[in-house]
Amino acid sequence: MTASCRQARHGSIRQTRAKSVARPWRRRPARKASATPTTSAPRSAPAGRYNRADVAFAQRMIPHHRQAIAMADLARERASSPKVKAFARKVHKEQQPEIRTMTTWLKAWGEQVPRGIEGAGHNPSATPGMMSTHQMHRLKGALGSAFDTMFLTMMIKHHQGTVDMAKSEQRHGPYGPAKALAADIVTTQTAEIAQMRTMLGTGSPTATTR
Fold this sequence. Notes:
The chain has 210 residues and is mainly α. 65% of the residues lie in helices and 0% in strands. The chain contains 6 helices and no strands. The chain has helices at residues 3-20, 52-78, 82-109, 133-141, 144-172, 176-200. Helix 2 runs antiparallel to helix 3 (82-109). The protein starts with a helix and ends in a 10-residue tail after the last helix. Residues 16-27, 29-45 and 204-210 have low confidence and may be disordered.
């Protein structure tokens, strides 16, 4: 092999080795943070105009419903009539979602949500149809058919108070969803009053609730 051929061959080998050398590692540029915020927007108040009548409706109806549910829960254990027990389950199923709805309104409006069963106790007349602490203790002490009669009689009075408050909301409250709920309450609980009177076997309540 001639000297010129050897030089050409060595030059080709050097070029091949140079190409095979790995390129230096380069750091990838960091991803830019998204400009879109990850936190959700603050909750806005329910759409529509409302006034003090709407606020009062929710604040009075929530503890009123809570007491009805407390009475219904007693019926599950102390009632003897299957019809009374079924009615109590219906009351619980209807009124618990309404409490949640009205609680949502009050929170969105920045208004106080009542705690517990306010309105009962020493001044039951503060909310129409509410049972006093004494009446609730009497109901808790009743059992069987005596409980059935007392429960239905008390619940009729309780429903009548609910209907009165709902009708007041219909007259004075401008907030559409509250007026719609009030209308549903009037229709539903008026029918339930008639149902309970039928279950008592009389056109009007006769048992005492004192």
